[in-house]
Amino acid sequence: DIVLTQSPTTMAASPGEKVTLTCRASSSVSYMNWYQQKPGASPKLWIYGTSKLASGVPNRFSGSGSGTSYSLIISSMETEDIATYYCQQCCSTPNTFGAGTKLELK
Amino acid sequence: QIQLVQSGPELKKPGESVKISCKASGYTFTDYAMHWVKQAPGKGLKWMGWINTYTGKPTYADDFKGRFVFSLEASASTANLQISNLKNEDTATYFCARRVIRVGFDYWGQGVMVTVSS
Question: Which residue of A has its CA nearest to B4?
Fold first, then answer.
């Protein structure tokens, strides 16, 4: 099984700050998806195919990476970005998720 | 509009069974696979497996083989998850999610909270 390791587990960012979340895979994957989840809500597809923004996602978000290392980047943190972000590889069974990065406001 | 509407919360005792439904609307049900995801309280997302909505064939992650059954009522555009011989560690929210190839899980149900307690 492909294990996805997200870092950091938790991070706090100030409004306007650049944020980088990382997801490392135990084996190479073709691409990575990211989901945003807020407390009490269902996850939302946020970034797919490594770098494509899902519908409605602000363009301050971007995704990059290849092979075993992927990133979700927020160019300028906003309060509405407070959430937990999960990476997921969906090309190899099981379609594993990372453990998540909880993004808080500093 | 596309929606996945799941059944309501469940409170069960250890050893009992539960069946959760996920009713899809707004698209052709058999065109997209349905996946199931578990989230224990305060924990992350765990992929359980998926069902081919065209053929009805289920695929289970290793941790969900044996007591977990995915099924369909295709005429009702509904996917079901049945868990038998419930254990305390089955206490969680269970999500259904539609998967689009090369995109990911683009629509999710609202989740069903299953509580197992004696």
Answer: A42
Q: Name the β-bridge partners of B99.
A: B33, B105
For B37-59, what is each residue's pLDDT tens digit?
999 999 999 999 999 999 999 99
Distance CA B36, CA B72 (A): 13
* Cβ count within 10 A of residue B77: 18
Cβ separation of A33 and B105 shorter than 8 Å? yes
CA A5 – CA A18 distance, rounded (Å): 21
With CB atoms and an 8 Å threshold, state whether A42 touches B105.
no
Residue type (1 letter), A67: G
State which amino acid sits at residue A83.
Answer: A
Q: What is the pLDDT of residues A52-80, one digit of tens each?
A: 999 999 999 999 999 999 999 999 999 99
Contact B7, B111 (CB under 8 A): no
A4-59: pLDDT as tens digits: 999 999 999 999 999 999 999 999 999 999 999 999 999 999 999 999 999 999 99
Asked if residue A94 has a cis previous peptide bond (ω within 30° of 0), the answer is: yes
Q: Does A33 touch chain B (CB under 8 A)?
A: yes
Is the minimum CB–CB distance between B99 and chain A shorter than 8 Å? yes
The answer to whether B44 contacts chain A (CB < 8 Å) is: yes
Token pair 């991070």 is found at: A11
Put simply, the answer to whether B102 touches A98 (Cβ < 8 Å) is: no
